[in-house]
UniProtKB/TrEMBL annotation:
It comes from Allopusillimonas soli. Keywords: NADP, Oxidoreductase. CDD domains: QOR2. This is Quinone oxidoreductase. GO terms for cellular component: cytosol. It comes from the Bacteria. The keyword NADP applies. PROSITE patterns: QOR_ZETA_CRYSTAL (PS01162). InterPro entries: ADH-like_C, ADH-like_N, ER, GroES-like_sf, NAD(P)-bd_dom_sf, QOR-like, Quin_OxRdtase/zeta-crystal_CS. The keyword Oxidoreductase applies. Residues 5-316 form the Enoyl reductase (ER) domain.
Length: 319
């Protein structure tokens, strides 16, 4: 993309991939994960020097290895979810410390759909607020790519996840993936329904990847000295925050985390990925890939994701 804008700014171009630098690997990609953050970069909500590609997560096979890379070799099945921008590509060079091996039992499509969304759930549930297994929590957009993984991970931990969704179909999907209860916010009052489910109790933690539209609702459901984890802006960024509201609602905590700060080293990345992949291998997390698009149809994929026409994960495929 050479300018910010709608899906029409995305162009297919041909570039040469140079030999990897000493701390890089060249990956021939098999599947690419699509995420809402890609839309933020396309529109300019998040900035990166133009022109640039899009995307941060993919899976494939190592084709070449830089001279200082020790943990990977040619032929390894690998995945990444925190690369420099530009994953929408057939082949590319990626810093080796952002790349992990895919274990047996995990396919390229699954890995590409998991590396950003799955590791997001890992840091939300196991680092930002470490769930112990006896909590009741609220997770907005429970039928989305991150949400369906969160539903399954919560069930695996013994956590009661209350999800929100925009339709009966999406509510049913979240329930099928392990949510304890799901609220159709197009028909029900979320605050009233949560309080009815919990016997009038608010929650120790609320996970909100929606942003502007759910900010007030989320705050209303956090118990005194509880935590609101605002980790996304699907409906637009939260702005004009009055910190006094946190005091008035019970000395609340709010955090705006991001994945990169939780997997800042290869060791931390590998540990998080190992925990995630182990749940996939044990069949406790099944990756729900709701739709696949060819790489050249990335613009259409963006339209459908922004229009909330997708369920589960979306991937771009390569022949």
């Amino acid at each position: 993309m050479e300018q910010h804008g709608g899906p029409e700014v995305l162009k297919v171009v041909v570039v040469n991939v140079p030999a990897p630098q000493e701390n890089e690997v060249t990956i021939r990609q098999k599947a690419i994960g699509l995420n809402f953050i890609d839309i933020y970069y396309r529109t300019g909500l998040y900035a990166s020097p133009l022109p640039h590609g899009l995307g941060f997560e993919a899976a494939g096979v190592v084709e070449a290895v830089g001279s200082k890379v020790r943990h990977l070799k040619v032929g390894d099945r690998v995945a990444y979810g925190q690369s420099p921008i530009g994953a929408y590509a057939e082949a590319r060079n990626v810093p080796a410390d952002r790349v992990v091996k895919i274990p047996r039992g995990v396919g390229f499509d699954e890995a590409a759909a998991l590396m950003l969304k799955g590791l997001t759930v890992q840091y939300l549930f196991r680092q930002t607020y470490r769930l112990q297994g006896n909590e009741t929590i609220l997770f907005h957009a429970a039928a989305g790519g991150v949400g369906l993984i969160a539903c399954q991970w919560a069930k695996a931990l013994g956590v009661k996840l209350i999800g929100t969704a925009s339709s009966p179909e999406k509510a049913r999907l979240a329930k099928e993936n392990g949510a304890w209860e799901v609220i159709d916010y197009s028909r029900e009052n979320v605050v009233e329904r949560v309080l009815a489910l919990t016997g009038g109790n608010k929650l120790p933690v609320v996970y909100d990847g929606v942003g502007k539209d759910t900010w007030t609702t989320s705050l209303d459901l956090v118990q005194p000295r509880g935590l609101l984890v605002s980790f996304g802006n699907a409906s637009g960024p939260v702005e004009g925050v009055n910190l006094g509201v946190l005091s008035a609602k019970g000395s609340l905590y709010v955090t705006r985390p991001k994945l990169g700060d939780h997997v800042a080293t290869l060791e931390k990345l590998q540990a998080a990925a190992d925990e995630m992949f182990s749940l996939v291998v044990k069949k406790k997390i099944r990756v729900a890939i709701g739709q696949r698009y060819a790489l050249e149809d990335a613009g259409k994929a963006h339209e459908d994701l922004a229009g909330r026409k997708t369920t589960g994960a979306t991937i771009l495929t390569l022949d």
